[in-house]
Amino acid sequence: MKMISHNDYRRAAKSKLPKMVFDYLEGGADNEVGLQHNLSEIEKIKFAPKRLLDVGSRNISRTILGKSQQAPFAVAPTGLNGMFSSNGDVKIARAAAKAGIPFSLSTASNASIEEVAKACDGELWFQLYVIHRELAKQFVERAKNSGYQVLILTVDVGVNGYRERDLRNGFSLPAKYTPRTILDGALHPAWSLNLLKNGMPKLANFETAELNDIEVQAALMSRKMDASFNWEDLRWLRDQWPHRLVVKGINSVEDVKRCAEMGIDGVVLSNHGGRQLDSCIAPIQILERAASSVDISVMIDSGIRRGSDIVKAVALGAEATLIGRPLLWALAARGEEGVGEMIQMLKDDVDRTLAHIGCADINQLDKSFIYS
């Protein structure tokens, strides 16, 4: 099948993955109204094109967190990528490096901090979940020693979202084999054979962590986040990390301002792609106010599907967007090559949208290109 949009990759991913795995990729919290809300709020935003301007050549490169990148977006941190394609984290990281955009590695990755750093020569960001302070300290030190340039602290997972698809399917790692899951695997033989060949993906960062402390071992076994992590702990993390620090999962202008006051380098407005709190605002709804209130980097994810969505976000003040599900659909459909194709598709769409609205340079975008 010829791939001409992200929806084609989504359909291909759905056909290739067992239902349980695709539902994990696709699903959200509770009734999943937040998933659609993210999309519909972005769709509401309309362009106000300008005409008779020279758009014969266009520039989509963007400075993100002080460093020039080849596009105004980066790869969002996503967990369990090895479930969609063997060695999925490395495949996405390599494709991102070739395309000249940053790659964010999740704490819940199936390749370790060190493995990805050795396999990829692009810009690497590491996303941190705090399960235990000592474990967090280890991860931060490992990322620093492995050359990661940005640390992303995710703050919207004090407890895990109630993802009904996963609960109904019995999704877990390691997988629990039931007659239903075995049948599901048999109906997707290519995926199952790949799993037999390469083994069940593991949470590689935890397997390579030092677990001498009994308290750390207990925290890891429970797989629960440290819900007590607060603003004072963020100050501690700021002291631990010498490079650029980003806080992800912010949903209020007040919290954006507080991050700026604490010396945080950037924030990601995010509702975790609708996977945590179902009845939550879409990040795009507060983007303009948040970006205009501080001098730090303000980025956004959740509901970004096309290059035109990226252009809308930048016009409203975002320094960049993070891309999640579309790259995972491409990974599941066509591996590393598919991820590269999706990144290029997004780049082309950004470029085409700029031409359509009369803006030759992404860095010249502002609210005047948005109808209000």
Characteristics:
single chain; 372 residues; alpha/beta; eight-stranded parallel β-sheet; 45% helix; globular
Structure description:
It is a single chain. The chain has 372 residues and is α/β, with parallel strands linked by helices. The chain is built from 16 helices and ten strands. The protein has an eight-stranded parallel sheet with strand order 3-10-9-8-7-6-5-4. Strands 1-2 form a two-stranded antiparallel sheet. It starts with 5 loop residues before the first helix and ends in a 15-residue tail after the last helix. The model has no long low-confidence stretch (mean pLDDT 94).
From the spread of the alpha carbons, the general shape counts as globular
Q: Rounded to an integer, what's the Rg over CA atoms?
A: 20 Å
Low-confidence stretches: none
| Average pLDDT rating | 94
Query: Percent of residues in beta strands?
Result: 5-15%
Structural class: alpha/beta
Distance between the termini: 39 Å
Helical coverage, percent range: 40-55%
Q: What is the β-strand count? A: 10
Question: SSE string, helix = H, strand = E?
Answer: HHHEEEHEHEHEHHHHHHEHEHEHEH
**Major sheet summary line:** 8 strands, parallel
Please tally the helical runs, counting DSSP H or I stretches of 4 or more residues: 16
Strand order of the largest sheet: 3-10-9-8-7-6-5-4
